[in-house]
Amino acid sequence: MKIAHTVFLPHLIYLCRVKNGKVEYFLKWENFGEEDNSWEPVEYLDCPALIKAFEEQQQTKMEKTDPVKQEEKFSPSTKHARKIKSEQKTKKPAKEQSDDVKLLFIILLLHVNTF
Predict the structure, then answer these.
(1) Is the pLDDT of residue 114 over 60?
(2) DSSP 4-72
(3) How far apart are CA 84 and CA 78, in angstroms?
(4) Other CB atoms closer than 10 Å to residue 13's CB: what's the count?
(5) Cα–chain-centroid distance for residue 54?
(6) Are the CB atoms for 12 and 31 separated by under 8 Å?
(7) Is 92 left (phi over 0), alpha (psi -120 to 50) or beta?
(8) Which residues share a beta bridge with 19?
């Protein structure tokens, strides 16, 4: 009796995910239709070149679509400048802080005098 071996060759990797702590790739199989695409754990795959190409493609996509990454790529100090700008937006000027303290004090006095 002869046992036939069917070899399934991955043709493309469409997606990647982590499920239950394990990396899985959504594959298009060579000589099979789209309905046969499947999620496969990385440990079941023997296609390092295909995985590497997919990961590089994903990295390139991220760099192109993330303007912050692009900005930081050309200017390392941009992240620091952005942080300072953000802090400046959240901090109130001294005059406004002083007004807030005065208002809080007045409210507190009114509250205490009502008893």
Answers:
(1) no
(2) PPPPP-EEEEEEEEEETTEEEEEEEETTS-GGG-EEEEGGG---HHHHHHHHHHHHHHHHHH-HHHHHH
(3) 10
(4) 20
(5) 17
(6) no
(7) beta
(8) 22
The reported pLDDT for the residue numbered 110 is 64
Kindly tell me the burial class for residue 3, based on how many C-beta atoms sit within 10 Å of its own C-beta (0-12, 13-18, 19 or more). Answer: exposed
For residue 40, the model assigns a pLDDT of 93
pTM, entire model: 0.53
Q: Are 23 and 39 in contact (CB under 8 A)?
A: no
Per-residue pLDDT tens digits for 3-53: 777 778 999 999 999 999 999 999 999 999 999 999 999 999 999 999 999
Report whether 33 contacts 52 (CB < 8 A). Answer: no
